[in-house]
Batch of 4 targets.
Target 1
Amino acid sequence: MKFTLFTASCTGVESNCRYPTKREIQDAQDLKEAARFDHVCGAYKNSYRSRDNFLWSDVAVMDCDNDHTENSPEWVTGEKFLSLVPQVAVAIVPSRNNGKAKDGRIARPRFHAYFPIPELQNEKPTRH
């Protein structure tokens, strides 16, 4: 599995829009290291994240916050998610708020799923 993330030099700074460090993810250790920082799943002109600056991406990301229900047996864990997509290349990382109460909701599993994709260079996929 191989994909690219771009990291900031900070974590949790909502006003940050700069992601200058290119991280080529090839294994769990690479992803663990990159996920320690705020990151984006695309390259941006001058490393400044904005719609107009988008250059390319080779990964799609999904957040799972389990906010669809308060019924804990219905929550999806990373392991359960992987079992639901056994033939799909995906990497799972717990989110920063995994296992924490947030927005008035009790603690629950929260994670990000990264799906390597063919590189795209605009927001509209081309059809083949």
Target 2
Amino acid sequence: MMLGSVPGWPAVLVEGSVTLRPYRRSDARAWSEVRIANQQWLTPWESSPPGPWAEMNSTRAYLYVYRDMKRAARRGESMPFAVCLRDDDGQDRLVGHMNLGNIVRRAFSSAYVGYWIDSRVAGRGVTPTALALAVDHAFGPGGLHRIEVNIRPENRPSRRVVEKLGFREEAYHARYMHIDGMWRDHLGYAMTSEEVAAEGGLLARWRRVRTTAN
């Protein structure tokens, strides 16, 4: 589902129990709860916050985050998705974040992907499913050609996500981003639309990977 003049935005993407959708103002409480509950899980991998974690992830802080995400999306600079998972009772619960950011059009037609997931649902295939949905959307309605993901070498779970999906490791960025109090190195992974076109997209590839693994 797509509306508006920005290529590919807004959109709602669904695969099984996983849904990617634009954030809502009403997500404040759910977003804050997940972020605060996952402080220890997320702190080693995210850019250093300018203040205490609880304060930077409060419902009040969310309103500023939401405003900035909405503004960037309207300008066509990013596609920020709330990652939701359907519970046994049929309710969609916010469990993570998937953002196509730093979008550049014209000859570059590229974006960086950043994401996080609630540790309580980690290991259930939510993140690779969400990433595959986002990448296919970027290559299709989003009109992009290349997607990059930068990950700390120590972040094995996140590296496994992109490696299972077939992203290429192509760079080592020394002291790339200030995270957890220090400038941290990152590994650069990338994928272009041609690399998955013949397979019917990245989601189709991920479905085959899951089937083979089972």
Target 3
Amino acid sequence: MSQDYNPNDLKVNKNNYFNVAYKILLYLKYCYENGTDVNPDVLSPDNIGISEKQFVLTLQMLLEDGYIKGVSLKSTIQGPTIICNIQNTYATSSGLQYLVENSMMTKAYKVSKEIRDWIPLYK
């Protein structure tokens, strides 16, 4: 177990899967509803406030669950996974429905009201 791990962090962790997935799906919903392209500077681990690894894993889970499409992830032999075509990412109808109906997403919304702080166009 990592020395940095603290079980108490789980109670207040704003970077859990549901909060991160919520931020990603909400931004993709925003792009869809406003007819704008995904901005890689906005949809980035630094902008969301998470590590590159967590960002890649979250994208992978969203892809596997059928909630997003357009982006692809390429594994490399010697290093990290490469994110390809992030600007082509979009939320599927399943992803949009999940955003609205999932109770964990509702909880994530309550925790993630700072969404306007990390999406410059969302103000």
Target 4
Amino acid sequence: MRFLTTTAIDIDEELMNRCLVLTVDESREQTRAIHALQRSRQTLEGLLAETDRAAVMALHRHAQELLEPVAVVNPFAQRLTFLDDKTRTRRDHMKYLTLIRAIALLHQHQRQVRTIEHRGRQLRYIEVTESDITLANGLAHEVLGRTLDELPPQTRNLLSRIHRWVTDECERLALRRADLRFTRRQMRSVTGWGDTQLKVHLSRLAEMEYVLAHRMKAGQGNEYELLYDGEGENGGRFVMGLAAPGAQTHDYDAQRSGQNGARSVPGRGAVGARSAGGREGQSGAKPRPVLRSGDDRPDAPETHLLGLNGGGASYPHPAAA
């Protein structure tokens, strides 16, 4: 196992293929929780908790030492499904299968150890259960769902915060979303981010057509319009095509995860209806859908497409036609 940390916004695609990507929670709530923990460490209770740390770590190490090297067999393997529309998922699929095996191995003392004779040797193994797959699916939605997202985590975080702010402002001012404009200065106030950090992520959102930049008067920079309509905001991260335990399907395109009560619930929508129309009077061509990988390199394999907000003068809404 190798752990790497980085402050880089973009991660090399080959590294993304081989690793599970976790990110730091930069929300205000998490900062508040960290401050509370830092203060508690200055108290008597904090001093006592620090002395207990070694004992807690020793307990976890002893629990790991109880695990034995035993093979894991997955009797549900042929019924599992996974995304197969990109070559990069060949490695992501193995991450998913390995995650299931690791969960089963962790619970080996709650499982029957089976034996089989093969080529004169006795092989010991345990079997994956449906509960292992259920747990693995939940973790895969959270971890692989972030890895396969076309936006880096902090860019996605900024988009969600802009979306919530625009929704509230439009309701407060009784405006259509397409008529609301915002500046980087306003977003610095809303998010508490520094200008450099905000500029990087906002530029990425503009490049991928989640927001539209409008030129202000000469020398006054840009103001922005949100094109993103909030697709999947309430669903959380997900990986399309994971079969729930006991699902009788070999084709995830025919029966997708979350389409009925026997499967896991859906998360963030993977594909929007279509991209918005072109700007009238400027170009007869419609903007092409943007398909990019989670590490945001323009030459990387595509992931999913999010539909764009079709409202306003910039992108006429279909309903207004």
